[in-house]
Structure to design on (367 residues):
């Protein structure tokens, strides 16, 4: 948590291996990841991490099913297997019948639920979520958080969430406050 | 609003008459809802009974006797306890939170640890309410929502205050303590 411009998204990007930190180190599963090459970090992001961003960042030309399948395809899974695995997520997330719709044909809340499925379909260890409800109304936002946290818990995945909304932060088990680029308060 | 703690905070700086305390209280904490003189004196009497303040002297200045009060060691301890412990989060805490922030500034205490402790306490309560609403029927969820929205408003106020604390400090420290 933290005010706009405090550095919380930058911290998330460093932890996720998207940005190299200016100082310090990032350790995942007992090994440093900040000194890995871009290829290794990219592989780690595809296999061990999932991502949900504020505006979903779904590929607009692809159907919802193809969007959810995409991370599996990038990991070399056969299309038929990837699409079968992706299809299992639609009833779980209340998206029955939405498989063939494109992002432009879905509401913001539905798109974010597809983004949640895409983040979790590879069964990652950590899901990084940057303001995942920032573009949604209160009820749609809570549905997304409910689905994200319960699905991640079923898969034993951790969720690292950036938000400025206290109601969203209350879904987390602990908070870390970032102010002026520094961790200001952290409590379990 | 915790009037006794606000008075302890004012007395921690220096001893005051009840008359001064009322004026300072109004200037710092309640410019729109002045405190009644009777409430100042009855509160001071209760605090004296609890050993948190003591009568330091009686003076006569153009009128009735003025009793000057000073904070005691027990009063210091009680103020320290109240400032360092987060309030039990519940709706409509703003007045008490505001008093804490102003007292921290007046006494030169850092504001950020206070804000962080209050934020953590609020989020703890919000986690409990979120767990209740996730497990409960809609009517329970809506009741929990009522509390969650109020707690969220408190937190937003805390964040705005934390962001403007330097500005607030500059304004508060220029309040004239006319006697």
């Amino acid at each position: 948590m933290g005010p706009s411009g405090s550095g919380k998204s930058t911290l998330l990007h460093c932890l996720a291996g998207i940005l190299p930190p200016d100082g310090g180190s990032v350790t995942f599963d007992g090994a440093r990841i900040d000194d890995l090459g871009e290829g290794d970090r990219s592989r780690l992001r595809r296999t061990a991490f999932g991502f949900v961003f504020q505006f979903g960042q779904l590929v607009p030309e692809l159907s919802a099913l193809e969007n959810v399948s995409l991370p599996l395809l990038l990991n070399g899974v056969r299309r038929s297997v990837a699409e079968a695995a992706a299809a299992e997520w639609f009833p779980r997330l209340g998206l029955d019948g939405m498989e063939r719709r494109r992002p432009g044909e879905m509401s913001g809340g539905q798109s974010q639920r597809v983004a949640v499925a895409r983040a979790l379909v590879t069964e990652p260890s950590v899901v990084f979520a940057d303001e995942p409800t920032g573009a949604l109304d209160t009820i749609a936002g809570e549905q997304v958080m409910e689905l994200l946290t319960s699905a991640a818990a079923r898969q034993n995945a951790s969720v690292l969430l950036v938000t400025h909304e206290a109601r969203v932060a209350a879904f987390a088990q602990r908070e870390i406050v970032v102010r002026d680029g520094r961790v200001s308060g952290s409590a379990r | 609003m915790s009037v006794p703690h606000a008075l302890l905070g004012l007395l921690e700086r220096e001893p005051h008459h009840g008359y001064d305390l009322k004026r300072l209280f109004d200037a710092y904490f309640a410019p729109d809802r002045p405190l009644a003189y009777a409430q100042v004196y009855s509160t001071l009497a209760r605090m004296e009974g609890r050993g948190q303040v003591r009568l330091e002297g009686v003076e006569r200045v153009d009128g009735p006797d003025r009793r000057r009060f000073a904070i005691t060691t027990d009063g210091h301890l009680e103020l320290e306890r109240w400032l360092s412990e987060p309030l039990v989060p519940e709706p409509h805490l703003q007045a008490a939170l505001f008093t804490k922030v102003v007292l921290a500034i007046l006494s030169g205490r850092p504001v950020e640890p206070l804000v962080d402790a209050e934020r953590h306490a609020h989020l703890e309560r919000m986690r409990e309410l979120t767990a209740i609403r996730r497990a409960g029927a809609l009517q329970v969820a809506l009741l929990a929502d009522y509390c969650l929205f109020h707690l969220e408003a408190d937190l937003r106020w805390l964040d705005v205050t934390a962001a403007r604390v330097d500005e607030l400090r500059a304004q508060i420290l220029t309040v004239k303590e006319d006697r």
